[in-house]
Write a structure and sequence with these properties.
By secondary structure, the protein is an alpha+beta fold. The chain has 23 helices and 27 strands. It has 5 domains: 12-148, Beta-Lactamase (2-Layer Sandwich); 154-259, Beta-Lactamase, CATH 3.30.450.20; 277-372, PAS domain (Beta-Lactamase, 2-Layer Sandwich), CATH 3.30.450.20; 460-618, Heat Shock Protein 90; 643-761, Response regulator (Rossmann fold, 3-Layer(aba) Sandwich). A hairpin with a 5-residue loop joins strand 4 (107-114) and strand 5 (120-127).
Length: 762
């Protein structure tokens, strides 16, 4: 091959010149629209007498013509004008011209043809000046036929009426007829019948008259009825006298390409519809700038697609999560991770994202899939908070239990000391001061048990309106004149099953917190309302299930809480007050009481916006629950030689209980755990009462001991004691005919004596 391809996307023109015409005597060369030489055969530089140094892959037709004009091949005159005239003739496709004389009086004839893709093929033949034009034209036609038969585009030559006089193989394949059937057929007959076909024919004829090229994409119909899409270009063909003697058509079958484009458009439309309708957000950014978002993204971030287009993707990300997001962009595919996004109004949204590298319109980009997990995150946070409080409740309950044991020992020994000593003056005051401290410690323990939801409650069917109304006067007197207490009570409130005394403590604690938050005064709203939460309105049933509730709202106009303070508000011993100004057990006690009452509590607060506490108490039945029968309160506090089995794992408290019972007139046996108690039950012929702690070591509880004792001694009386105070839960674990009672630790001597007599006389 003599020539090589230069600056084109297809080598077929170079191959055509170099191989097809490689051994013929005629010269052949091809050039593109910029006159850059594409390829040539061996005869071309010989006929044009061009030096080898002039022909390479960067040479242009202009340089060749300049060389020939300077040499004088085009006659005397300014070489620039002669060169430009030669180039103009060369680029006027479908014409021929006598170029310049060569040796022995011969001349060169140049014939050029536009063969598509912006490429022109020129044929150079040597002939005598007097040679007949018909002979030269015949030779040119022979060479044109060779060219036309080798290229992929369809070529047809027609007369002025559109009748095919010549064609190549590609044209036959495009129009669906062999060459012998296509010759003599009108090209207009391939157009679909109808007014559109007539309009196309009229346009072509008019274009030919205007000496212009007609180009369009039309549908053609094969003789067998098959339809194809064809891209065509029709150019007038002129004779030596300049008259239009026919047409030359170049065509390309674009059916498959158009079908593929249509399918691609349909697939893209389906894809966009699927993506736009997806519940997951899809965002694509290129070099950090947003180029595409679907509808879900606009809903997640509260901005329209137009507002997001072109923005930096980092404007949607919380600053604290920026480093993590940037790190994800360095990976081809990033695993899913959770982060915070920023909405248009400045609020935060929790999203789960994953990203991958994609190609977007020919350039590298990142596709980010986004799922709004704000509600899920809140539910997880609520669950973690509940688990944290539950763990704290177990811890504080255990502390309270051990604390009550210690207080019981201290209290009992102080009372014994007071009885034995003839204490007067300062000695008596010391003992009384110590006992008062024990009572304060017991109150603190009760608050711990309230948070742990293990305080003994006495629930009653309660009209909360009446309770709030009765507390309003007390609260106004307690809070002072600068705080306006405003009750808003439901007209017909649903009854609730709660401990009224504990509920009064709840209102008092909330009111005192509100007073501290309003040092300059303000307003305290107490509101009750019946509320029904339907299943479809409950976002997270783990936080508050559907059902009927009486809602108590306590709202102040105080300074409010910061988010970090709000997150820890229910934790025991957490307080924002100065040291010594509060125990930090107020809200934790309220939380425990509400939870133990099967209710729910929620706080809304923000700095400067006050605090609102919502209590959701389940609606109770309209009838009073069956009460346990009241025990006698007038019995003597002394025993009558009854036999009592004392089961207590704390040795100090056990020794104290045995000592107190003996002094009261009881006969006692003692055990440190369940196994020892069972062994004693097997040996003792009779006992009147079992006095046992509920929580014992070695795997056997006081309830299990009571069941075993009941089997050995039917009708046995049982008195439980505990530092936890689970009186509301243990009764159902015993046989229904078992008579049991409960006394909470720490217990005083008089209280124990009275309860023992009540149990024995029941």
């Amino acid at each position: 091959m003599e020539g090589t391809l230069a600056n084109t996307t297809d080598s077929r023109w170079s191959d055509l010149c170099g191989t097809l015409f490689g051994d013929i005597s005629e010269g052949a060369f091809a050039f593109d629209r910029s006159l850059r030489l594409v390829g040539w055969n061996r005869a071309m530089p010989r006929l044009l007498k061009l030096p080898a140094s002039l022909l390479d892959t960067t040479v242009s037709v202009r340089e060749i013509m300049t060389y020939c004009a300077r040499r004088g091949d085009f006659g005397p005159g300014a070489f620039e004008a002669l060169r430009d005239a030669a180039i103009e003739h060369l680029c006027d496709a479908h014409t021929s011209f006598i170029a310049w004389p060569v040796d022995a009086g011969n001349a060169l004839r140049i014939r050029s043809r536009d063969v598509g893709d912006g490429v022109t093929v020129a044929l150079v033949t040597e002939e005598a000046p007097a040679a007949a034009l018909t002979g030269a034209e015949a030779e040119g036609q022979r060479l044109e036929t060779i060219i036309l038969s080798q290229i992929r585009e369809g070529f047809v030559v027609t007369d002025v009426d559109g009748i095919v006089t010549a064609c190549n193989r590609a044209a036959c394949e495009i129009l669906g007829l062999p060459e012998d059937k296509l010759i003599g057929v009108s090209t207009f007959s391939f157009l679909p019948a109808g007014p559109e076909a007539k309009a196309v024919e009229d346009t072509i004829r008019r274009t030919m008259d205007d000496n212009a090229t007609w180009s369009a994409e039309t549908e053609v119909v094969w003789p067998d009825g098959q339809r194809r899409m064809v891209e065509s270009s029709v150019t007038p063909m002129r004779g030596q006298d300049g008259r239009v003697i026919g047409r030359i058509g170049v065509m390309r079958d674009v059916t498959d390409r158009r079908t593929a484009e249509r399918q691609s458009r349909e697939a893209e439309t389906k894809f966009r519809n699927l993506v736009d309708g997806s519940l997951q957000g899809v965002l694509i950014h290129r070099r950090g700038r947003i180029v595409y978002v679907n509808q879900a993204v606009t809903q997640i971030f509260g901005s329209s697609a137009d507002e997001l287009a072109g923005r930096s993707v980092e404007t949607l990300i919380h600053p604290d999560d920026m480093a993590r997001f940037r790190d994800s962009t360095r990976k081809p595919v990033s695993p899913a991770f959770k982060m915070r996004g920023r909405r248009r109004d400045g609020s935060l949204v929790w999203v789960e994202v994953n990203a991958r590298a994609v190609d977007w319109e020919g350039e590298p980009a990142r596709q980010v899939t986004i799922v709004d997990v704000t509600e899920k995150h809140r539910a997880e946070e609520a669950l973690l908070h509940a688990q944290k409080l539950e763990s704290l409740g177990q811890l504080t309950g255990g502390i309270a239990h051990d604390f009550n044991n210690l207080l019981g020992v201290i209290s009992g020994n102080l009372e014994l000391l007071r009885e034995q000593l003839d204490a007067k003056g300062d000695q008596l005051s010391y003992i009384e001061a110590s006992l008062r401290s024990v009572r304060r410690g017991a109150e603190l323990s009760k608050r711990l048990l309230a948070f742990a939801r293990k305080q003994p409650l006495k629930p009653e069917l309660t009209n909360l309106n009446e309770l709030v109304d009765s507390m309003t006067t007390i609260l106004r007197r307690t809070l002072g004149e600068t705080i306006n207490v405003e009750p808003r009570l439901a007209s017909h409130p649903w009854p609730v099953l709660i401990d009224p005394g504990q509920m009064e403590n709840v209102l008092l604690n909330l009111a005192l917190n509100a007073r501290d938050a309003m040092p300059q005064g303000g307003r305290l709203l107490l509101e009750t309302a019946n509320l029904t939460l339907a299943e479809n309105l409950v976002k997270d049933p783990t936080v508050i299930p559907a059902g009927d509730y009486l809602k108590l709202t306590v709202r102040d106009t105080g300074m409010g809480m910061t988010p970090d303070v709000l997150a820890s508000a229910f934790e025991p011993f957490f307080t924002t007050k100065e040291v010594g100004a509060g125990s930090g057990l107020g809200l934790s006690m309220i939380y425990g009481f509400v939870q133990q009452s099967s209710g729910h509590i929620h706080i809304d607060s923000a700095p400067g916006a006050g605090t609102t506490v919502h209590l959701y108490l389940p609606r109770a039945a309209e009838v009073l629950p069956e009460r346990r029968r009241q025990l006698s309160k007038g019995s003597s506090p002394s025993g009558n030689n009854e036999v009592v089995l004392v089961v207590e794992d704390d040795s100090d408290l056990r020794d104290l209980a045995v000592l107190l019972l003996n002094r009261m007139g009881y006969r006692t046996h003692e055990a440190a755990d369940g196994q020892m108690a069972i062994a004693l039950l097997d040996k003792l012929p009779h006992i009147d009462l079992l006095f046992t702690d509920l929580v014992l070591p070695e795997g056997m509880s006081g309830i299990e001991i009571a069941k075993a004792a009941r089997r050995r001694f039917p009708g046995l009386k049982v008195l439980f004691t505990s530092g936890y105070g689970e009186s509301a839960s243990f009764q159902e674990l015993l046989p229904p005919d078992t008579t049991v009672e409960m006394i909470s630790k720490p217990y005083r001597r008089e209280a124990l004596a009275k309860r023992l007599q009540q149990v024995l006389s029941s």
